[in-house]
Specification:
This is L-iditol 2-dehydrogenase. It is an enzyme of class 1 (oxidoreductase). The chain is an alpha/beta fold and about 350 residues long. It is built from 13 helices and 15 strands. About 45% of the residues are buried. The mean pLDDT is about 95.
Length: about 350
Amino acid sequence: MKAAVYYDKGDIRYEEVALPMIGPDEILLKVKACGLCGTDIHKALDRLVSPGTVLGHEIAGEIVEVGREVKGYAAGDRIYAAHHVPCFTCHHCRRGAYSLCPQFKRTNVEPGGFAEYIRIPALHVQHTIGKLPAQVSDEQGAMVEPVACCLHGFEKIDFRPGASVLIMGAGQIGCIQIQLARHFLASQIIVSDLNPFRLQKALEFGADYAVNSATHDLETEVMEITAGAGVDVVIISAGVDALLPQAINVLNRGGTVLVFAPFSGRQVSIPAARFFQDEVKIVGAYSSNPYHYPTALQLLSSRIVDAEKMITHRFSLAELPTAIACAHHPSGQVIKVMIKPEQEEGNAVGTVSAGE
């Protein structure tokens, strides 16, 4: 079978790899769609994975073979599949922090979603796959995992109806969060970004205000919009360390900052007095947990989260390097990129500029 295999930054090869062999309690899946996630891009560009790795974890496809001990699934079933499984019994799992479980990152599908076929191990069959109803497309199914990640974040901040929210970053995750904030009855949704195309899309997905932080002072704009109060929730969905002090500065008393993107680790200064005087909070959210997948599927099925409207580009497996360059371009007209293993090379959908 074919796969897009990572070897180094700028070196992803479309090549023949071995078809995975399944065990009696496993599934062989033909990948129909795999979303290109920001973490895939981060890993590929910053050399965070080993040569020979096949990335991709936002997966939907059709079962072609089931092991003899698999119950409830059969060849021909269309399913979504996520990549990590907690143990459900360790210290972190007992506290509901499933993504911190030591087993979580050690589990994965084989070889990865940017391949024609994958092996779904027994733990995943038990906990991180689900059937797609007829009205849900393969591309919608591939969005189950990122929507579940966003639900995990909203759970961490205990989002309440009537809350005002600032979402910093209008990429694929930010646009999901806009739709969820609207669904959860936010009173005001402000979105900031540097990209005019993404800001326009943010308004289309339900944001009330879109602030270009390259041309406007974000803190001034937010305080004017909120009549000096600040927002109840700030969600940082862009991996820029300097956004954290800004987030604290525009936070209302009793408010919460959700860090939803990986920072570089550079130290930044924030006003420590606000934690006691104003009871503000900073929380982080990494990945998802299996309990959010059914809800994510329902949100996609009912188009509360409109996956099809988010998808701006589709590429074949062989075009993964082009897809990464397209998605990573700072001024590109891109929201969500899908990799379609069955799509022929050269039939990319979505405009790719010369700079991408």
